Amino acid sequence: MAFAIEVEEWVGSVWHRFITRRASPDFPEARVELESMRRPLSVLFRAMGGASGVGVEAANARDLMLRRNLLQQVAGTCKQLPVAWCDASNLRLPQSLAVFPEVELNQDLYRWLALLAAQAGEMRHWARDNQRWTQALLQQYPAMRSRYERLVEAHLLLRPDPDSLPKAEGALERALRQALREPGSVDQFPRSEIAPWPLPMWLYPAENLGVPQATELADEDPDNNLQAPPSEQKGLRKRAKRVEENSGKGGLMLFRLENLFSWTEHVELDRQSDDSENEDASRVAEDLDEIAMSRQRMRKGGGLKLHLDLPPADFDDIPLGEGIKLPEWDYRKQSLQENFVNLQMMLPRGSEPQGLPLRLSPLARKLRRQFEHLRNDPQWFRGQPQGSELDMQAWLDFHVERQHGQCAERGLFMEQRQSRRDLACLLLADLSMSTDAHLDNEHRVIDVITDSLLLFGEALSAVGDEFALYGFSSLRRHQVRMQELKRFRQPYGDETRGRIQALKPGFYTRMGAAIRQATELLGKCPQRRKLLLLVTDGKPNDLDIYEGRYGVEDTREAVLEARRQGLVPFCITIDSEAGDYLPYMFGANGYTLIKEPQQLPFRLPQLYKQLTQR
């Protein structure tokens, strides 16, 4: 019996693969992944006039009312297809392209979409606007016409024959073919109940990413949230919706075969279970278009971890005082929204005084020796009336001034003497749930950040510089959390070490609010030089409109505000894609990428040493 079941499952899987391949309109052998072209596409988009705060990300598949052939209906494919779209905050391209049988054509299609998105504005009519943008792009860059025509002719060979379609669909297909060949030549398009086959060279209407999160979940109980680790498909999120709890007990039971639930309609999930991962459930979840969540608790969860557009599981730290109201920059209005964000200072729960872990002791001793000599290092003072060496720069200035008839008194010597380092530093560490990701079998990102904070504290306590340590995360604008690890003028000791080792990852990354509060704290220091360090593993994001360009623009504005107050903001990241957005937020010389995250604990003190010796 078991053998028969295995044979049946094997035959079923073989049939599924066969029928799916036959029904698919793609050319898998020529597939091009977005990840392999993300960086050059970002550069191309911005170089052609695209907004600097917009990054290239993967687009979700979209429901399209297409006419499918018999084979596609049998296989159940082509119900959803990824299409390109953009708005003021997002540029979303298909995660992969296999539209054409040649790799070069698929690569050119990615480039064309990036160019078209840079040219595009607000969409009012899908077909007319795409024609207008295409026409403007070809007029401005005539050299692009040959590549565009090559894409069009290759695509028209793959589109359905208008004569084989019903009258209304055939008329629409002929109009679209003419619009592709001669952009701007078609103004009126026939109506059809069935959508035309997707046009990969055109942009589609934007998806509203912010509204479902902001409206449907805004008033939800903050103590009932879901922790959502990153999905294996980077950049994609599963749609989620709330459903009423229905245990199936009690009441009148009506039995109708067509109302039986399937996997694609409803999945019961235990939102706070720590059980082991259920691989079957994970595979099913990858196929789900929308996941329904109820408040029903199951005695045993499936250990299923999903990346949903729902908030993560809440864990309580200890609040310190009242919340702090902070502004936030809205690039769409080009203005600060006063008292828009609520930031709560907190202490890590469960922290107890602890010593430095033994595994870090050798490196800590090495760093202390390197930094102790900075405390007593003599400094050269220029422009002195007397000294041990001639100040060549001062002498040259004096010589030039005398040649022009000026003879101002100035010191021409340099003197070396002891000096006190007049600087303060605040280190701000990203504690969002992305830091729970594993770097290898033994280390997570949060472990590397924790070790970095510990060694940074050891190094700076040795040199005697004034410094403070904070962590931050967020859950929408009403819950920006800032963990206080060490205040300015507070001694660095076992209490601080215990707080650092009690840190837990969670929530999201509203950088702007954290930077503004750090700027406020650092601005109160009397030191002349003030350094604001940010350690992170990714770009700004949160569950509401803070995703995408909005978060990037707000963070950039917070960095500019810090600079206007005389601070030096600098970002240290382990995100390999940081080059797409950090130069815009922090400037070309305002950040550094640590390519091997395990090196962060050692590199962080060395970077501080370099920054403070400039």
TrEMBL record:
**Pfam families referenced in this protein's UniProt entry, alphabetically:** VWA (PF00092)
Please list the residue ranges annotated as the VWFA domain.
422-611
Q: InterPro entries, alphabetically?
A: NorD/CobT (IPR051928), VWF_A (IPR002035), vWFA_dom_sf (IPR036465)
Return the annotated region ranges for Disordered.
Answer: 216-244
The molecule here is called Nitric oxide reductase activation protein
Instruction: Identify the gene encoding this protein.
Output: norD
